[in-house]
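Task: sequence in, structure out. Protein: Endospore coat-associated protein YheD.
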Amino acid sequence: MSLTFGNVHFTQQPQRVVYVSGSLMKNLKLSGKKSVHLRLGGERVPATVKPINKAGKHLYLASGVRKGIKIPKAGGVYFRAQEGEVQIGPLIGVLSDGPTSSSTHPFGNRTGFIKQLLTIGSKQSYIFAFTPRDINWDSETINGFFLGENGRFSRKRVPLPDVVYNRLPSRRAETTHSINQLRERFIRRRIPFFNWSFFNKSDIYRLLEKDSSVNRFVPESINSPTSEQIKDLLERHSLIYYKPSSGSLGNGIYRLSHVSKNGYYARYRKGGRNALLRFNSFGSLMRTLQGRHGRTLRGYVAQQGIRLIEIDGCPIDFRFHMHKNGRNQWVVVGIGAKKAGKGSVTTHLKNGGSLLTPEQALGRAFGARADDVLRNAKAVAINLAEALESHHQHLLGEIGFDIGIDKDERVWMFEANAKPGRSIFKHPSLRAEGRASIEHILEHCLYLSKFRRREG
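Result:
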């Protein structure tokens, strides 16, 4: 296989002819060949090869070839030659959805992120966004959203892509028959599809608790706990979190604590505000929880609380944004330190939390030890990502870990997110990491689609 980067141009001739510069002919090992098959995504057409005398790596496609494989635009892209076929690409599809039919914001509040991906990605690939409704499985084509140089979307029909990056936003929609069928159809066509779906908290805890290489970093967690189990956890740890298995953004989370001689406390969000209830007995606490969430408390996880490092009396935890790079290795790309708002049950920014860099937070908490603590936390995050991937049956390329560090420098993993939010990258000191995150997504797409030289 040979892989090279060059430029695609269009000519108006109706025939199925491809004109190739001498340098590109040599790179693609086409010298002396009269014909070749050209491929984009899932589409393939034969074409006559005609060499041209032009410096650099250039491929001119006659309109018959261009229309036959639905090349969306001219410009710089990769060429991958193998066994009489030249594949142009990669063709990268970003799967998302939006509640609107807006031509300017077709993906709702994710449109800005998708525009960033398409802007950076279009310099080295054919990248487009699409919704489940845009796929025509009969013709194996997608009516995709491409981004023009003017920053506006235009629709172009292209073949099924070489790789799909899944950013479907709805946890509920992902469990429907139609979305399950969509994913299976891509897999049957051997089109890499990452990230498969949102994680379920209890599944992740169960996977990692059984792994001796990382289970010491996971707080004790009980899925669908009985009231006796909750009481036992509280007696042993004095602080626990009680949260929905499939929740996000801190919704539905309770921080339960037991203070000897003072009673039991439940801290939670209500109507956009932080609320605190006190109970004289464990029984009255449980009656309140069961009244709100059913007597069996199914679909909830009870988890050991950790006494985190604090700044100004407010707990701090960290979002580690992990990516696979172009060599298929896990790396830490961005870290945001989240400081809880006064009286808040979580550090979520929407619940009054604030964002710091990890250096700021750890410097306040550990002084001269801060660099060593951060280095250790990064190593733990990579170990956790590798362990999670080893137990997961589908392709992962991105994980957001919510990680805590206690006063003894121990690292704890509270949650793993398959489609992490990007709010940490709004911090002025983390904008470069936000761009690096997008570049890692694209690098991994190149790797999965085989448009990246594989080392080793």
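The mean pLDDT is 90.
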